[in-house]
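Weekly modeling sync, notes
Attendees: AB, CL, MP (scribe)

Item 1: holo prediction request
CL wants a bound-state model with adenosine-5'-triphosphate before deciding which constructs to order. AB pointed out that an apo prediction alone won't tell us much about the pocket. Agreed to run with the ligand included and paste results into these notes for async review.

Input as submitted:
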Amino acid sequence: MYIFIINPKAGSGRALKVFSDIQNSAVYRQMDSQYFFTEYEGHGEAIARKISADPEGKTIIVVGGDGTIHEVMNGLISTEIRIAFIPAGSGNDFARGCGIKGKPEEILRKIIEHNMVRPYWIGNYTADGYGVRKFVNSIGFGFDAAIAHAANQSSYRRFLNALGLGTLSYVIALIYVLMYYKPMSMELEIDNEKRILKDCWMVTIANHPYYGGGMKIIPTAVIQPNVFPLLIIHSISKWKVLALFITVFLGIHTRFKEVEILEATTLKITAETSIPFQTDGQTGKCSSSLISKQKEAVHITGIDEAWAK
Ligand SMILES: Nc1ncnc2c1ncn2[C@@H]1O[C@H](COP(=O)(O)OP(=O)(O)OP(=O)(O)O)[C@@H](O)[C@H]1O
C-alpha cells in the first residue's frame, strides 16, 4: 500500500499541482494507494505517526518540501516503513542529497517498479533538554540559523519562491543579518573533548552536503551511520564572512582558514545566551543542544539506480 502525504502549501502551492499531475498519470492508476493532505503545521508528523504504527507493506510518499519530510520523519514510530519523496517545495535539499531525480511521474515509476531502497541515517537533537527530535538534512546554530529565520519571516520569500528564486531570498536575508549579527561564545563538547570558542559565527551538522536550496555547505558530507561532519566558522571578520558565503556557491568556502570541518559521533553545544538554530529550514532558539545520529536507518525508495546500495 502506498500512502501519499501532500503539503498543499509547499512550494507556494506547487505540491498541489504536482499531486494533481500524479493523479492523472497512468502509473498512479495502477497503484493501491491512499492520500492525505496536511491541514496545519505539524500535521505531517501526526499522519506519519498513525500510518507507521502498523508499518507492514507500506510506503509513505511525501509530496512537499524539506519542512514536510522533516515532519514525516519526526512522526515515524517504525523504521520498517519505506519512505519516498517527490520534491515540490522551494528548496528540496533532501531530494538532492538522496539522488532523487526526474519528473514526478518518473520518480513514481521508480518507486513502484524499480523497488530500490537506500538506507538513510537521520540525526537526533535535543534543544534545552526537551525530548529528542530528528533532523533530516542539517542542523545549524548561529549565523546560518539567523539567516534562515530572517528569510522565513520575510515578505519577499513567498514571491521569490513562486518565481523559483528561493536562493535569492536566502542571499537577501544573509546581507540583512550580516549588518547586525554578532558572533557568540559557545562551548562545544565534540566526542567528550571540550572546546570554548569565544567568537563563534556558526556550527552546522549535515547528513548530506546540500543546504539552503542547493548550496553545498559541507561538500564532503556523505550519507553514513554513526558519524556526522560538523562545520565550524569562528574568529573571522564580518567582511570575510561575506566573502566566505559568496564562495559557498562555488563550494570553495572550506579553504578559508577560519572554517573547520571535523567529524564526531556526539556533539554537545552550550552557550550563556540563547542561540538561534535551524533544523531543515525551521528555526528556534536554545542555549544547549545534544546531537547524535539515529542508530536505525530509514529506508528511502524512488532513488536513482546509481545511488542505491
Ligand atoms: N495546510 C497547511 N497550512 C499551513 N502550513 C502548512 C500546512 N501543511 C503543512 N504546513 C507547513 O508548511 C511548511 C513548509 O513546508 P515545506 O518546507 O515542505 O515547503 P517549502 O518551504 O516550500 O519547501 P522547502 O523547505 O524545501 O524550501 C512546513 O513547515 C509545514 O509545517
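Recorded for review: The first strand starts at residue 2 and ends at 6.
Action items: CL to compare against the apo run; MP to circulate these notes.
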